[in-house]
Amino acid sequence: MKFEDLLLEIGGFGRFQILILAILCLPRINLPMHFLLHNFLAATPSHHCAIPHQEAFVNLSVEEVLLVSIPRKPDGTFSSCEMFSQPQFHLLLNSSLQPENKSIIQHCQHGWVYDHSQFTSTISTQWDLVCERRGLNQATATFFFIGVTMGAVVFGYLSDRFGRKAMLQLSLVCSVGFGMLSAGSVSYTMLAIPRTLTGVALSGLSLIVLPLGLEWVDVQHRTFTGILSSIFWSVGNMLLALAAYLVREWHWLLVAVTGPCLLSIVCLWWVPESARWLIAKGKVKQAHRHLLRCARMNGRKDFAEDMPLTMYAQRMVLQREYKNLGGSYSYISLFRTPVLRKISLCSGVVWFGVAFSYYGMSMNLTGFGLSIYLSQFVFGAIEIPAKVVMYVLVNRVGRRQSQAWTLILTGLCIGANILIPKPLTSLRSVVAIMGKGFSEAAFTTVFLYTSELYPTILRQNGMGYTSFMARLGGALAPLVFLLDEVWRSLPEVTYCGVAVCSGAVAFLLPETLNVRLPEGIEDIE
């Protein structure tokens, strides 16, 4: 007897499943508030070199002081990283003159002055992570995603070994602890270490929440479950914009986005362990208890009364079935057999491309004529209709076509904005929002698609491996912004190329529309 058949008898999508999904949506909301926090935590406001001896300029306006102290860039704006070694008072007579002697231009010697109209403080303003230290600013996001990458490997293995729920609880507790340590940081190093560990902890949430929900619902509601979980990611996206708008000081912003994990810890006690996992591990008594609770809550009283006899009569059948599936499995098992090897290689490339392009777009909120808070909110809001459309598409055209074309269209939107002139901010905004919608549609599809590609005994290992590839893409995405020093459009060209290429690879994956979740490797092969 397949687990899917047993699930249909006790109610594949009733009150029991709705309660589980409602609770699991809480940590899902919290995830983007950390994953995209870099946009506000490390925001760099407009700045210029601090000008010494201000008493010498008492008769000059602020604009005039800048004019004689700070060189202009080719576009006419004041330089953020350079200053004159001596005041150039002759520029007051003709500001269009350019100093002939370049030796009088030097790097900032006395620190920087920041515009605090938008942010009270960020890590950039607190530790001067600008100009020559700009790389450290972007590295903050990379450190976080390196932690997420390591966590994907760790929690993927542990959740298959010790269970989904236990590892989800551990992940939440560690997220709170390391998040609060980050908020109390007094130096860059002190921030970087707990922020990396926060990434490790949050990876467990990202990895376990969706599979745990999917393993309790029937085939007909898997797509709905995946889309619903993904919608709450977008809600968290919009709530991050609200939290950042209300809390402009980075220490307290970290506290604000970490606090909701406490609510998730409390509510998680009502979520049962995956019955699929329990049976796969031979823990039939525990699975029986959870399935009985499911039947009663879903109103299957007749079945609930007969269930003890039914379960014990079927126990030997189930144990024999899962004994063949059980044993010792690791990440190496993903590459041992031909079909599974192909799935693992292709899905790894797709996940890398999805995350690389998604975070590349999500961390570039400027240049569209909108405030950073409104851009964050709009980028989050556009994800919801994108997910609703995907709910229809993945059931009509299938997972494979949806995955491939959303990635390709994401790349084309990024490429289009390279060609659209900067002054056309409205058009650039529309194209960017469309690209963000396609990017989120690709992310929504890949979570659902990957959960259906791997068998139960290797599902968390498979999710751990693909999540590792995704976080690798997320870790590299912020660093690509530094390539603008080589060529201004090189970051966008890179995001575009990776998205289109990974979309093409998605065509090599098998279709899973209306196919039962595979239980063992032989189901895949």
Automatic annotation (TrEMBL):
Superkingdom, taxonomy of origin: Eukaryota
GO molecular function: organic anion transmembrane transporter activity; prostaglandin transmembrane transporter activity
One cellular component (GO) term of this entry: basolateral plasma membrane
Classification via InterPro entries: MFS_dom, MFS_sugar_transport-like, MFS_trans_sf
UniProt membrane topology term: Multi-pass membrane protein
Localization annotation: Apical cell membrane; Basolateral cell membrane
GO BP terms, alphabetized: monoatomic ion transport
UniProt family annotation: Belongs to the major facilitator (TC 2.A.1) superfamily. Organic cation transporter (TC 2.A.1.19) family.
SUPFAM superfamilies (alphabetical): MFS general substrate transporter (SSF103473)
Gene name of this polypeptide: Slc22a7
Descriptive protein name: Solute carrier family 22 member 7
PROSITE patterns named in the record: MFS
Record field: transmembrane: 139-158, 170-191, 197-217, 224-246, 252-271, 343-361, 373-393
Record key words, sorted: Cell membrane, Ion transport, Membrane, Transmembrane, Transmembrane helix, Transport
Native organism: Sylvietta virens
A matching Pfam family: Sugar_tr
PANTHER family the UniProt entry points to: SOLUTE CARRIER FAMILY 22 MEMBER
Cited Gene3D superfamilies: MFS general substrate transporter like domains
Catalytic reaction equation(s): GTP(in) = GTP(out); GDP(in) = GDP(out); 3',5'-cyclic GMP(in) = 3',5'-cyclic GMP(out); 2'-deoxyguanosine(in) = 2'-deoxyguanosine(out)
Major facilitator superfamily (MFS) profile domain boundaries: 87-514
Lineage: Eukaryota, Metazoa, Chordata, Craniata, Vertebrata
